[in-house]
Amino acid sequence: MKIYIAPSKALVQEKVRDWTQKFSSRGIVCLELTGDNESYNTRNLQEADIILTTPEDGGLGFFSDIALLLIDEVHLLNDPRGAVLEGIVSRIKMLAHNPEMKSSSLAHVRFLAVSATIPNIEDLAEWLKVPVQGIKRFGEEMRPVKLTTKVFGMHT
């Protein structure tokens, strides 16, 4: 199972629409797991290939089968709401190293943390136990929308 965690329901819903359109022709099922969508059940969770959720709505009941955890906007770990995300990631890391989980996909869980604005990428990689060769940096050329920087002065 693959899990996508984003900081807001709006971003989760945007990704569900986008990924369902892109991946449904390949038979990949995306499931939104937020407070706005409570029509899921255990069967839906088992049939989903990708579960898209927020830290507050993700829960941990189905996390024993995670192969990939994609954390969007990971720089928000430093935000007051980041404690919930940190708790989820820490719990997954703890479970992954539990000898009883050795035969589950969780024992080999992969973390993919993305952010456009993370200054301490090495610290994050160390916390996630990512080897140096696993750290990838992308420049402005990879942005779908170019950033424009403007400086405004004020007369006093």
Describe this structure in words.
The termini are far apart. By secondary structure, this protein is α/β, with parallel strands linked by helices. The longest helix has 15 residues. Strand 4, helix 4 and strand 5 form a beta-alpha-beta unit. It has a 5-stranded parallel β-sheet.
Number of helices: 5
Query: What multimeric state do the chains show?
Result: single chain
Number of strands: 5
| Classification by helices and strands | alpha/beta
Following the backbone from N to C, one meets helices and strands in this order, namely EHEHEHEHEH
Average pLDDT over all residues: 84
Principal-axis shape equals: globular
Which band does the percent of strand residues land in? 5-15%
Helicity, as a percent range? 25-40%
> If strands are numbered along the chain, what order do they take across the biggest sheet?
2-3-1-4-5
Cα distance, first to last residue? Answer: 58 Å
Contiguous low-pLDDT stretches (5 residues minimum) are none
Radius of gyration: 18 Å
The main sheet comes to:
5 strands, parallel
Spell out the blueprint of helices and strands.
Blueprint lengths: L1 E4 L3 H15 L6 E4 L8 H6 L2 E4 L1 H4 L9 E5 L9 H15 L13 E5 L6 H7 L29
Parallel strand pairs: 1-3, 1-4, 2-3, 4-5
